[in-house]
């Protein structure tokens, strides 16, 4: 379920990127951006490369500009996945054993509890690759008001059938981890749940990771990423209020 594409185009991590700052929230170091007085919060759950990724923080800043308080927690406790110098991913299975989305789900509940204790009244969550599994688990309960999954990893049709909140799924045409066939099964499962608002979109000519692991100097890569960001933000504006 976590194929080679999960680790393609790794970002150059930068702990000082973004216009926000890092502090602890719910016991986790977290990148925070936006007004801390906002009653509406969005939690972004990263891929395996973690919360220091500049494109992810840039997206957090973009969401914050719409009036949300945005949190990007460090679910890996300073130990994101680092591919080998030769590009091999042999170490990924071992890394995942110590950094599973199950632990991420337990940790994100602490972050959400901390937000609610600060007076936040509505919360959305978006997960990217690894993070999508964490967010779909949140979407099965009453933790959040809306969810977005981008190029999800390890998410199953049964997961989608159990979702209880409005959910948007953004898939890639070129994706071995969540191929279009699987994303269409997600769509069918959601269509059968007419009481749950849903949005499913497969972006043509893009690969797994395109929403956060794009080259900012490549206009052809930036354009579909920004389209996905617009969809993500629109979903939260409509359902987290």
Describe the fold and architecture:
This protein has 241 residues and is of the alpha/beta class. Helices cover 34% and strands 22% of the residues. It has an eight-stranded mixed sheet with strand order 1-2-4-3-5-6-7-8, sandwiched between helices. Helix 4 links the parallel strand 5 (122-128) and strand 6 (146-150). Helix 3 (101-117) packs across helix 4. It is globular.
Give a nutshell description of this structure.
With 241 residues, the chain is an alpha/beta fold. It is built from 7 helices and 8 strands; from the N terminus they run βββαβααβαβαβαβα.
Strand order of the largest sheet: 1-2-4-3-5-6-7-8
Overall helicity: 25-40%
Distance between the termini: 34 Å
Structural class: alpha/beta
The biggest beta sheet, please?
8 strands, mixed
Any descriptors?
241 residues, 8-stranded mixed sheet, alpha/beta
Q: What is the fold's blueprint, element by element?
A:
Layout: E1 21-25, E2 28-33, E3 40-45, H1 54-64, E4 69-73, H2 92-98, H3 101-117, E5 122-128, H4 130-139, E6 146-150, H5 157-161, E7 167-174, H6 180-191, E8 198-207, H7 219-239
Parallel strand pairs: 3-4, 3-5, 5-6, 6-7, 7-8
Antiparallel strand pairs: 1-2, 2-4
Helix pairs in contact: 3-4
């Amino acid at each position: 379920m976590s194929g080679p594409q999960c680790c393609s185009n790794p970002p150059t991590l930068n702990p000082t990127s973004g216009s926000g700052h890092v502090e602890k929230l719910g016991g986790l170091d977290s990148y925070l951006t936006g007004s801390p007085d906002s009653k509406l919060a969005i939690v972004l759950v990263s891929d395996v490369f973690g919360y220091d990724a500049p494109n992810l923080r840039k997206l957090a800043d973009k969401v914050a500009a719409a009036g949300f308080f945005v949190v990007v927690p460090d679910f890996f406790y300073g130990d994101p996945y680092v591919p080998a110098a030769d590009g091999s991913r042999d170490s990924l299975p071992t890394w995942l054993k110590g950094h599973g989305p199950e632990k991420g789900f337990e940790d994100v509940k602490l972050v959400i509890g901390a937000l609610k204790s600060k007076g936040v009244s509505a919360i959305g969550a978006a997960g990217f690759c690894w993070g999508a599994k964490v967010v779909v688990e949140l979407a099965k309960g009453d933790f959040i008001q809306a969810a977005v999954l981008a190029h999800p990893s390890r998410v199953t049709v049964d997961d989608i059938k159990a979702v209880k909140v409005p959910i948007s799924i953004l898939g890639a045409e070129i994706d071995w981890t969540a191929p279009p066939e699987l994303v269409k099964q997600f769509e069918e499962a959601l269509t059968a749940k007419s009481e749950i608002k849903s949005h499913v979109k497969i972006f043509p000519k893009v690969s797994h990771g395109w929403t956060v692991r794009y080259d900012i100097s490549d206009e052809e890569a930036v354009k579909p990423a920004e389209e996905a960001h617009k969809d993500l933000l629109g979903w939260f504006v409509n359902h987290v209020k």
